[in-house]
Amino acid sequence: QTKTGIALLYDEVSENAYDIRLKLTKEVLTIQKQDVICVSGSDHSANHRTVTLRRQPVGGLGLSIKGGAEHKVPVVISKIFKDQAAEQTGMLFIGDAIIQVNGINVENATHEEVVHLLRNAGDEVTITVQYLREAPSFLKLPLGSPGPSSDHSSGTSSPLFDSGLHLNGNSTNTAPSSPSSPIANEPKYEKRWLDTLSVPLSMARISRYKTGTDKLRSNAFEVLALDGVSTGILQFYTAQESADWLRAMSTNISDLTLQNMKMANKCCSPSDQVIHMGWVNERLEGADSSQLYKFKFLALKGSSFYIFSTPPVSTLDWVRAEKIYNLCEVLFKIHKLWLVDDCWLQANLYLGIHQDFDLEDQRPYCFSVMVGHGKSHYFNVELGSELAVWEKSFQRAIFLEVQRTGSKTYMCSWQGDTLCFTVDFALGFTCFDSKTKNVLWRFKFSQLKGSSDDGKTRVKLLFQNLDTKQIETKELEFQDLTAVLHCIHSFIAAKVASVDPVFIDSQSIARKYMYSN
């Protein structure tokens, strides 16, 4: 199914926007611009057309013009009147820039100068025109017949003066002159939408923000292909149109990502499948103010969480990830959602393991992935639906890895003794002497009643003795305490999910938000 529509292409340098037509298929987004082409007759370049107009007693030249050097645009034809001189040539179109009038170059002339020349050019006026493919939207030129009938541009008046040359002007000839009409072997021209750029959507990314900043573009976004080719900034007339196009493109990109995952999974063992992957923005820590965020490509595959700067395309690419973490030792946490009434929601998941972030940035749909040694990565996605998918995918990937692994053992120490601490999906917690392998203590997951740590290496685990109902405190020291705490969290959450999947679903912050929307 193909989606088409009219939008604007915004040029940040000139700060002008140009009318374009978008064509979206499952795999490609195509940008089209209007141009005048020669459809029959001599194959002269349609770039420059020279047309002779005979001024009529009623209707004059039959056209209006806009623009001029004072507006940093050429003078263009803004209206062509039905059954009058300009229309009868079949060679002039709205949007044609006037380059010469009777051999005089007017490319850098003001509006008034061109009006004066045309009005005083006598009964026969020869003009050379070239279609202005990038007519700034402030000219408010009607888009004409190609494209949808709901014409965005024509209904609004332009800040620029529209000079009508359908008035008689200074005609000396009072007898009606023969109308300007196309001659049989003259070339025929048509205005058409032509493809100017095609952006493949496989592994493409969308950005609604000004590069690297928290400044959200109003009703506008940019699509970047895997090879870095950009559509430029696509601007829409309404927030609704912008949202519709954003959703349509995101859906197509997601579908293609799913296809890529299926292809990749054919080459991978059942224990090393890709669960989810996609583009996010990562907030740079301690970055300068101009570049707060950078695009990163995340993947959940087998036992690992990968961070890439560019997507893995071949099997070999998986080894060149910037970072690889074991899924049992990470903690996924949603930070912010933009609710319908624009208030912020702070979200803590499960055990409420909390870390204070500086949450002053203005981006909604943020999540962090906390990793070993107290470090964390802070990400943002473009849509609430993407946040819900990442939340669900992290849960699924972590639960699968816990069940696959079965148990994790960490070296630790207490009062000079080297011990081993095991988290086991079936048995719970076990601590044993690393040399003699003697079990010192063992507790089920359900016996863990609380914990506290010093934020560095030391943790106190509070277990309830099943016989005495008394709380027993076990104190241990780990080299990477954060990884161990995350592992405990992962195993307990997976255990709860295996017993009560409904509870885990009820904890989904992102999906609650999605449904409330």
Automatic annotation (TrEMBL):
Instruction: Keywords in alphabetical order, please.
Output: Actin-binding, Cytoplasm, Cytoskeleton
Bias (Low complexity) ranges: 143-160
Where it sits in the cell: the answer is: Cytoplasm, Cytoskeleton
Q: Which residues form the PDZ domain?
A: 50-133
Named from the GO MF annotations, one term is: actin binding
Q: Which CDD domains match?
A: PDZ_syntrophin-like (cd06801)
Ranges for region Disordered: 143-186
Entry-linked Pfam families:
PDZ, Syntrophin_4th
Q: What's in the GO CC field?
A: cytoskeleton; syntrophin complex
Main localisation: cytoplasm
Classification via InterPro entries: PDZ (IPR001478), PDZ_sf (IPR036034), PH-like_dom_sf (IPR011993), Syntrophin (IPR015482), Syntrophin_4th (IPR055108)
Q: Which family would the database say this protein is a member of?
A: Belongs to the syntrophin family.
Cite the PANTHER family for this sequence. GAMMA-2-SYNTROPHIN, SYNTROPHIN
What is the protein named? SNTG2 protein
Name its species. Answer: Dicrurus megarhynchus
**What lineage is on file?**
Eukaryota, Metazoa, Chordata, Craniata, Vertebrata
